[in-house]
Amino acid sequence: MAHMNMIQALNSAMDVMLARDPAVVLMGEDIGYFGGVFRATEGLQRKYGEHRVLDTPIAEGGIVATAIGMGVNGLRPVAEIQFADYIYPGIDQIASELARLRFRSAGDFFAPVTIRTPCGGGIRGGQTHSQSPESIFTHICGIKVVMPSNPYDAKGLLIASIEDDDPVVFFEPKRLYNGPFDGDPNKPAVPWTSHPKGQVTEGYYTVPLGKAEIVRAGSDVTIITYGTMVFVAVAAAAALGLDAEIIDLRTLVPLDVDALCTSVKKTGRCVIAHEATRFSGFGAEILAVVQEECFWDLEAPIQRVAGWDTPYPHAFEWEYFPGQARVSEALKTVMEVT
Amino acid sequence: MNKRSRLHLPAPPARPGERPDFSYVQISPAGAVARPEISVRARDIDYLAHELVRVLGDDAEAVGPWNPHLDPSDLQMGLRHMLLVRIFDERMQRTQRAGKISFYIRSLGEEAVSVAQCMALLPGDMLFPSYRNQGLHITRGMPIVDLMCQLLSNTRDMCKGRQLPVMYHSKANNIFTISGNLATQFPQAVGWAMAAAIKGEDHLAASWLGDGSTAAADFHHALTFAAVYQAPVILNVVNNQWAISTFQGYAGGEQRSFAARGSGYGVASIRVDGNDFLAVHAVTQWAAARARTGAGPTLIELVTYRVAGHSTSDDPSRYRAKDDHKFWPLGDPIQRLKAHLIRLGEWSEDRHETLIAELDALVAKSWQEAVTYGTLNEGPRLNADLMFEDVFKEMPQNLLRQRAAMRLQRT
Predict the structure, then answer these.
(1) What's the domain count of chain A?
(2) Lowest mean pLDDT among A96-100, B334-338, B379-383
(3) For testing the chain A interface, which of B155, B159, B167, B221 should be mutated: the one with the most A CBs within 10 Å?
(4) For residue B230, which of A21, A222, A260, B369 sits 20 to 30 Å off, Cα-Cα?
C-alpha cells in the first residue's frame, strides 16, 4: 500500500494496464510528453513509448472516432478528454457509434474504449471548466458511466473500466484530485494522505463496475450520492448529528438498484445529492427508481440536492455549489415528517 | 427588402424541364495525367487533385501511365461483379416498390467505385463503407441471399433485425458495420489504420463517403488525423454530384475539387474518373502501395454520377432534370468496361447477354431462398427478445427486467 492522491492513483491504474496488456494505448490532448494538464499520465510516455501514449490533435470528435477504429482493430484505447466541458464535439461518435457498435452489428464489432474526463467545479473554472454532464451519458443506451470519489476506488474502477469490453465514460471529479472536500472552500485543503481511501494498493486490483459502496452505515436516512458530493454529504449529516446511511454510487450505469433500495427500505427516508444541475439530472432517475421500488416504505417525500439550473458561474461558484447548507436543509426536510 | 441579396447560391446543372449542362466538370484526356512514383511527397503532386485520371478513352482503348494492365480474366470478373450489383439493385428496387422490403438504396451508375477499388485491395484490408457501397460486399464474395436477408430483417439477418435495410456488415470479409449517420466511419477508418501501424501490420483501411458528407466535421477529423500520423488509409470521396436533392456546390465543390482539400492537409490526393474501371483500379492500387510502404494516406475523389434517386424514399424528378444522366460526360462504367473487353477480343454481345441471364437467375433464386427465412410481413420472425441483447456484452438488471416486461406484454 502507498499514499496516493487521485491523480497518482489514476496514473498507477494506467501504468498497471499498460504493463499488463500490450493492447492498451493512451491518447489525448497534451497527455504524452507533457503528461497531461492535470498530470494524470505523467511519465507514462517515457516508460511505454510514444506509440502507446499518443498526443493528439485538438479534436474531441476525432479522438473518440479514432479510438473507436483502434478498438475495432484490437487495441484497448484509453482516451482523455481534457475537460468534460470539451466532450460535446465527441458526442455523435460516442452516442451514435461507440455506444451502438455491438448492437447494430449483432455483436460482430465492438470497441472497448474508456473515455476519461475531469468534471465538476470548485476550482474557479468558470462555465467551461466546471460542468458535470454525466446525465447526458447515462441517457445513452450502451455505455457505462463511472464516477469515483476517492483514490482507491478511482484506480480500481479505472482498471475495471479498461478491462471491460463495453465502452465506459469515466468522470473524474477534479476537486477531489488532491484531497477529500467537504464543501467548505474556506477550510484549509485536506490531503488524501490523512484519509483511509488515500491508501492504495500499488499493483493490480479492480473495483467492480455496477457496485455502490456504503460509505457510512446508518438508520435515520439514506443519502444517495456520488463524486464530489460524497464528502459534503458525510459532513452535513455529521453536523446535524444524524445517523445517516451514505451510499456512494461509484457507477451510474449500470446502477446498483439493490443497494439503494435495501437501504431506503431500512431507513424510510432518502436524500439524493449531486453537483450537476437538477432538471433532468441523474438524481431524477434515482428518485424515480426509489419511488417505484420503495414507495410503501417511505416516511417522507424524497429530496434532491443539486446544482442550480444555470451554467456554472465563475464569480458565484460557492453560491452555485450545493454545499453542506443545502444538504442540511434537505436532510431536515425529510426528517421533519413523522 | 430593397437591396438585392449578394449571397451566392450554387446552381445545379439542371432543374426539371431544363437541359443539363455538365460543362463545369473538368475532364482530362485519357492517358494524359502523369503517374508519380508511390514514394512521392504529397506536396509535390498537387496537379493530381485537379486533373482527372482516365485510362479508358472514348474509343474504349486503355492508354497512358495509369493503365493497370489487368488480365482479361480480372476485367471479366470486374464486369461480372458490376453487373451483379446492378441486377441485384434493380431487383431490390422493384421488391421495395412491391412492398416486400421497407427501403432500398441503389448504386446505379457508380458500380465501378466499389468493385474496382475492392479488387485493388487485399482481403485483410478493412473497409469502412457508406450506404451505397454494396459492391464491396459482392466483390468480397458475400452471398446475395445474405444481403437479401438483411434487407428483409428476417431470421438470417446478420444485424438481427436492428438495422435499416442496406446497413450490412461482414466480420469475416472485413467490412465494417454501416452507420446511418453520415461521415462517422471516415475518422474511424483512420483509427483502425493507426492501430495497424502501431501493431506493425501491413493491412490498410479504406473508407467511403459522398460529396455531401465532406461538409461534416468528421471529414476534417479524418484528414487531420490521417495527415498527422501518416496513417495507412485510403479516404474516398464518391462525388456523385448529389446529396439527396442538394447539388455538390452546396458541399463546397463548386469552387475547387474535393480532392484539392486533401492537398491542404498534406495528404496525397487524386481526382479520378469514377466511371472508368481501369483508372479507379489503378489509383486505388497506387494509394494502397503508398499505404503499405509507409508513404501515408491518400484521398481519392471519384467523379461519378448518381443515376438513381438517393433512395426509394426519394423522387429526383422533383428537383433535377429527367434522364440527366444521359448527358453525363463520363458515361456508364459497365458499358465502358464492356466496350473495352470487346475491343480486346475478350468479350462479346452474346457472352454479355448470357452473363446477364445467369446473374438474373442467381438473383431470382437467391430471393426465393431468402424469403424462406421470413419477410417483413410473413413467415418466420426474429424473436423480439433480441433487442435487449448486445446493448452491453452482459445484460444488466434493468434490461433483464424490461425484457421480462415485454414478454408479459406479448402474452
Answers:
(1) 2
(2) B379-383
(3) B221
(4) A21
